Amino acid sequence: MDAGTRLFRTALLGLAGNRAARKLSERYGMRLGASRFVAGETMEEALGHAKRLNDAGIAVTLDLLGESIQSLDEVKVCEIGYVDLLQAIDREQINGNVSLKPTQFGLALDAESCFESIRTVVREAERLGLFVRLDMEDSPWTDATIGIVRRLHGEGLKNVGTVIQAYLYRSVQDVKQLSAERINLRLVKGAYKEPGSIAFPAKKDVDSNMRRLIRARLESGEYTAIATHDESIIRWVKSYARSRRIPRTAFEFQMLYGIRTPLQESLAREGYTVRSYVPFGRSWYPYFVRRLAERPANVTFIVKSLFKR
Ligand code: FDA
User: Fold this and answer.
1) Is residue 29 part of a domain?
2) How far apart, in whole angstroms, are the C-alpha atoms of residue 70 and residue 189?
3) pTM for the complete prediction?
4) Of these residues, 63, 135, 174, 207, which one is catalytic?
């Protein structure tokens, strides 16, 4: 990554956490071009997209957007939202599960009530035979997020897993330990702004650590969700699995809604399990800005689409 791109990315990720910018953007609804990455503001819209993806042979993980909430009242709203979502997935027979963010459940406000609320959601999912994944946010929450998943597993709730980010130095150790504990993991490169003291600053090092984590996880024999749009990594996974006789049922590819859709469809046609991450809801702003920061060309796309209206 050159210095200009790095500066651009840092500036955008700074904006993701900016409350004034968030309020202003959300007021203008999806007109800023967010609808390319966000599957609507309501559950009904998201379920419609989920059904269309299922029809193309693609599973989904639905994410009711929200993070860094400000009051415990919002936690209850979020918990009810997720319970409703799980019941709708079951009712509508969607091939899917859910992803949630711990700070959306008040991790920064009250860790215990966050845990209890997430447990309510995981219990409801267990009752319905569904799975819940705790997304991984920025590094202040890494230990706490893993801690919540471990505690739930300790209570016998095995239908919950989390995410490990290849940009963090600690992740090799985390994958090793969590695989030994048989915790379901999604592996990603990492989407937040992290200091060089804890995360690889160079993209090439993140990419090679991603391969290292995937290899370690596949070798552990535990189910692996490989979440990337990086075609060279996807090609490498396919040939690595073939050469090591790792069955296709041992892993799945995950990609984000609206990104590399033809690739998602072609992998599904080839017989791989593919899952699309389908975010929806009114609090789409920080998610949207992280997608822009991943690829400068997205900003050009958004600016062009504004002028087309
Ligand atoms: P990379 O950034 O190298 O991109 C490879 C290629 O993919 C690019 O050249 C481009 O063509 C395409 N691409 C990538 N991003 C794009 C974008 N935004 N728009 C258009 N094209 C794009 N992160 C995290 O920290 N915690 C989490 O819990 C999750 N969860 C998660 C779930 C799923 C299903 C996915 C796919 C990703 C995440 N992420 C995440 C995000 C992840 O960490 C990472 O930021 C993005 O996936 C981008 O990295 P890639 O692996 O795609 O590679």
Assistant:
1) no
2) 28
3) 0.92
4) 135
